[in-house]
Write a structure and sequence with these properties.
Layout: H1 3-19, H2 24-39, E1 45-50, E2 64-68, E3 77-87, E4 91-108, E5 123-129, E6 147-149, E7 164-166, E8 168-170, E9 175-182, E10 185-193, E11 197-198, E12 202-207, E13 212-219, E14 222-226
Parallel strand pairs: 9-14
Antiparallel strand pairs: 1-4, 2-3, 3-4, 4-5, 6-7, 8-11, 9-10, 10-12, 12-13, 13-14
Length: about 230
Amino acid sequence: MSLFYLLIQLAFSAGAAAQELQSLPAIQKAAEAFVKEKTASLPGQYTVTASRVDSRLKLEKCTQLQAFLPSGSRLWGNSSIVVRCLAPQSWSIYVPVQIKVSNQVLVAVRPITSGQQVHAEDVALEMRDITRFAGSALTSLDQVAGRTVVAPVANGTVLRAEMLRAANVIRQGQSVQLTAKGNGFTVTSEGQAMGNATAGQIVTVKTRSGQLVKGIARGEGVVEVTF
């Protein structure tokens, strides 16, 4: 066999062998397609970017790829998707993906001082990347109603659940209505709150006689004691 035909045969064999290798971009696309499918019905706008598969990796050509989320991972931020081959060979590979989520969230449009109650004019809905907030970014005015900030909030800050607390309905030193309930009776008197409390919290109240009793804050200036 001449050298010319030998080179042609070797080139053909190399081309055929290359065709038997799995397309690495196809693996990357499979991971991205999986994430996009799983996030299509979720609120917000999801942007998915899968990392390029190492070009040095040589995998046998697959006719049936399957992608799935490994246990302990989530479709948020930096994650990994497993892409495996079901046929004709069996192999699997982890593909790192970056998932960014943008959504309408509440943003402070003016500085809010510590302890200040948040009002509608203090915030506005804006589209922001919320990936780094781990799902705690607030998305509606209902979530801030009657709540105060625990620390100063700068203009332009995305409001998050951990930044707020329920407003006090009982304040230390305040005169409160003390309602005592028992089996078949209700007695109402006045007392002085010995501490602050939000609705549902337990607070100590000093009665007119000087006795200290504990009750549950039920509303603005109202404490309930059950016997």
